[in-house]
TrEMBL record:
The keyword Nucleus applies. Residues 156-287, 311-476 form the DDE Tnp4 domain. Its main location: nucleus. It comes from Acanthoscelides obtectus (Bean weevil). This is DDE Tnp4 domain-containing protein. The keyword Nucleus applies.
Length: 558
């Protein structure tokens, strides 16, 4: 054999040996050592129980203390009862300690922990944000059926939650009401359920700032909500986009409709639009069909087509956080965080964002939410724009909101100012208000039942966020439970319209909110809107006064 071949043979033999060694399976170690598996047999607890029953004095010698010195743990049942009692009454920890027999210090740990557990347990089922077009269409269907507002994907609003000024926070949580607050931003479906909630913005942030801080806003402006495609409407040649609706606090955007400004020059069509939007707003999905379902529900309930939700925000009063300066000081002069929410046609929250400082407005809370960021990036799977019946131009599915939010392609808000009776702008404002009233009712019921939201929470913003999110998920849980629904929201709880007389009967929660100081609305801020967003709102307003799009009773409310 030549030296070269001999060398190759050696190399081949070495490589083969290495491969065999590498491929040889290593012997696995046992998962649990055998003696550890006999814990029940040899544990010291068995010995202690025997000593305790036979020679109690030896226990002291073994442990260097008596069993009497042990502190009994608070049971799961006691933790839940204490938390629900706090949410229902809003009493201080000092007051609750007498009925719960738990120290205020321990309550300060138990209640936020239990609220977080409630939220984590219920959110996937009862606070599910649409992620498909079918889910958005379901929301829009609800708004159309209940509030006669086609293509509506939700009613949007925000509320200031009064808090105690966090130490060292300055004016960080100081809002326009001169209170300290966090802002709750929410989107509600036509059934008064929250579909999106964002809470935590400091109270001093303006309305536009609150919405921009939500992830919802990011998804909206990036076209990531997977909204349904624009559809044709009866009697309209142009396709209409699916939209969200809000009040004057928000900006008019492509998928966000707000009312026409109330001026003396507003026409009949604008007034009709404002009426229809108002109806739908009184009240968020991840696939296009889900969005369409919401939109269909809005149209069936509130006669507002292509509506994906109603959004709004509330200030939650808190104590001033440490070193926060004036960040949480809201327009009322108190410290707060903002709760932003989107509600479907059935008063359920579909999106909630909480945490914005109270100084941020509704629109600001919206921009801070993840929903807004997803909307900006087109990540929400909204349905494709469609043409309203009888029209020619496609319009997007929208959210409805008030003046606190920006008017955009997917967010509708009312026309500003006083509109002439019977004008297109006034009708639109009525229709939008009717759809958006859903989110007002959802917030009203929330504060009426969970009375911890009715007065300032003397807690840190992080704990206030956990408590608020627990309240929101419990709201949806009770609204969707067949047995609990009638007890939670008995007849007369929500606003009701007499379509024959053209009158509105206020829900019972409004009578209970006359002296409410801690769950405050968002301050309205004037802002410019894009030309495209205004065109979309005009298309909706013209549809609402057309033969196909009008409802018989809308002239009675003008």
């Amino acid at each position: 054999m030549s030296p070269i071949l001999s060398k190759k043979a050696k190399i081949a033999l070495a490589v083969g040996t290495i491969i065999l060694l590498e491929s040889e399976k290593k012997k696995k170690r046992v998962w649990v050592k055998e003696w550890l598996q006999k814990r029940d047999q040899f544990t010291h607890l068995r010995l202690l129980k025997c000593i305790q029953s036979c020679e109690p004095l030896d226990v002291i010698n073994y442990l260097r203390m008596d069993y009497d010195l042990f502190r009994e743990a608070v049971s799961v049942e006691e933790r839940l009862l204490a938390t629900l009692r706090f949410l229902a009454t809003g009493r201080s920890y000092e007051d609750l300690k007498f009925s719960c027999i738990i120290s205020p210090q321990l309550l300060g740990r138990i209640i936020p922990e239990t609220c977080r557990a409630i939220y984590n347990c219920l959110r996937k089922k009862y606070l599910c944000f649409p992620s498909k077009e079918e889910e958005w269409l379901k929301v829009a269907e609800g708004f159309n059926n209940m509030w006669q507002f086609e293509n509506c994907l939700g009613a949007v609003d925000g509320k200031h939650i009064a808090i105690k000024q966090p130490p060292g926070s300055g004016s960080h949580y100081y809002n326009y009401k001169e209170l300290f607050s966090l802002v709750l931003f929410a989107i509600v479906n036509a059934n008064y359920e929250f579909t999106y909630v964002s809470c935590g913005t400091n109270g001093r942030i303006s309305d536009g700032g609150v919405i921009k801080k939500t992830d919802f806003y990011n998804l909206l402006i990036t076209d990531s909500l997977k909204l349904p495609q624009p559809v044709n409407m009866r009697g309209i040649q142009n396709k209409l986009l699916f939209v969200f609706i809000g009040d004057e606090a928000f900006s008019l955007m492509t998928n966000f409709m707000t009312p026409y400004r109330q001026t003396n020059s507003i026409g009949y069509e604008e007034k009709c639009f404002n009426y229809r939007l108002c109806r739908a707003r009184r009240i968020v999905p991840t696939v296009p069909n889900g969005w369409k379902k919401i939109a269909n529900y809005y149209n069936n309930l509130w006669n507002f087509p292509m509506c994906l939700g109603s959004m709004d925000g509330k200030h939650i009063i808190i104590q001033s956080p440490k070193f926060s300066g004036s960040e949480y000081i809201n327009y009322k002069g108190t410290f707060s965080i903002v709760l932003f929410a989107i509600v479907d046609a059935n008063y359920n929250f579909i999106y909630v964002y909480i945490g914005c400082q109270g100084r941020i407005s509704d629109g600001g809370v919206f921009k801070n939410s993840g929903f807004a960021k997803a909307l900006d990036k087109s990540m929400l799977n909204f349905p494709q724009p469609t043409i309203l019946p009888g029209r020619q131009k496609p319009v997007p599915y929208v959210l409805v909101a008030d003046d606190a939010f920006p008017l955009s392609e997917n967010i509708l808000k009312p026309f500003a100012g006083n509109q002439d009776r019977g004008s297109r702008q006034r009708i639109f404002n009525y229709r939008l208000s009717r759809a958006r009233r859903v989110v007002e009712n959802a917030f009203g019921i929330l504060a009426s039942v969970f009375r911890c939201l009715r007065k300032p929470m003397l807690l840190e913003p992080e704990k206030v966020e956990k408590i608020t999110m627990a309240c929101v998920t419990l709201h949806n849980f009770l609204r969707r439970n067949a047995q609990a629904k009638d007890l939670y929201t008995p007849p007369g709880s929500f606003d009701a319209e007499d379509l024959e007389l053209g009158t509105l009967t206020e829900g019972a929660w409004r009578k209970d909110s006359e002296v409410l100081q801690s769950f405050m609305p968002i301050k309205k801020v004037a802002r410019k809107s894009s030309y495209i967003a205004k065109e979309i709102r005009d298309e909706f307003s013209e549809y609402f006064v057309s033969e196909i799009g009008q409802v018989p009773w809308q002239s009675k409310y003008n």
